[in-house]
Amino acid sequence: MTYPSSDEEAFLIEPKPLAGFVETPYVKKIVARALNYIKAGFPIHFRGISGTGKTTLAMHIAGKLGRPMVLLHGDDQLKTADLVGGEHGYRYRRLVDNFIASVKKTEEDMTRRWSDNRLTIACKNGYTLVYDEFTRSRPEANNILLSVLQEKVMDLPGNRDEEEAYLRVHPNFTAIFTSNPEEYAGVHKAQDALRDRMVTLDLDFMDRPTEVAICQAKSGIERQEAEAIVAIVRGLRDSGEYEFAPTVRAAVMIARSCKIYPGAVIAADNGVFRLICQDILSSETSRLGMRNNHLKVKQLVKELVTKHCGRKKTSHLSMVRTKLKINPVSPV
Questions:
Q1: What is the mean pLDDT of residues 84-109?
Q2: CA-CA distance, 97 to 30, in Å (whole number)?
Q3: Tens digits of per-residue pLDDT, 75-96?
Q4: CATH says 6-86+117-202 is which class?
């Protein structure tokens, strides 16, 4: 059994359950499919729009494998050396020979110090590599992955301390990739040869029970309140009146904001709640900030809040606000 060096340990994440991870039937089916493909020896690629849980699923599956994990984030400035390793700093050696008391010999030399990077560490030790948003790195930086995933061999630079020109990938090595669609800003087109070496699972919006469970788990609000917020978000999504579709992330942001915002009550006649919904959903669904789109979303959110929250609902959060004697802001 090999043990990681102190330099390698800095890159490792120990496998453990994710706090607050929600496992509904929808999620369990995706996890089971991914684990079966990994068991068959294939790397997994989660592809989908922002907010569909790609990174969380990748980290959860890596934890399920029970091996140390190495996390790598795609970046336009990333180079092959940032994956494999490079020369960082110097190694100084001094040898003193005083075998004969009257004769003293000294030898000194200084060489560049090689340090393995994340991909090499994972391949060498059989760890799990989670390469998040890998298409944000330039395709040429990811070329090293072609032989790693197919032939299970990594080409090593000739200036390493070791003499071997190749590294045989550990049989336990596993790679999990995530990416956004290619039309997203800052995303490069992945090589066809690289995509051909992995199993891609396209993630869409989650079903209603999963979104409700996530909203509740991530915010701590009551289930009835989570259902109302998710209904508003899904109603806006179904309307098609947006530049970008809102995801469960918007529901979590609304719920968590309501917990700390003075005067916020998840009810249709609460002006603060209505304002929070409008602010977050306008932000989530628009990147260009067009006024017409903003006003359209604002009006639609008003209607959805009235429809799904009702005017007479009183939540636990409402009772807490009442006891604290916090007056809500006038309706917007």
A1: 65
A2: 65
A3: 999 988 888 876 555 555 666 6
A4: alpha beta
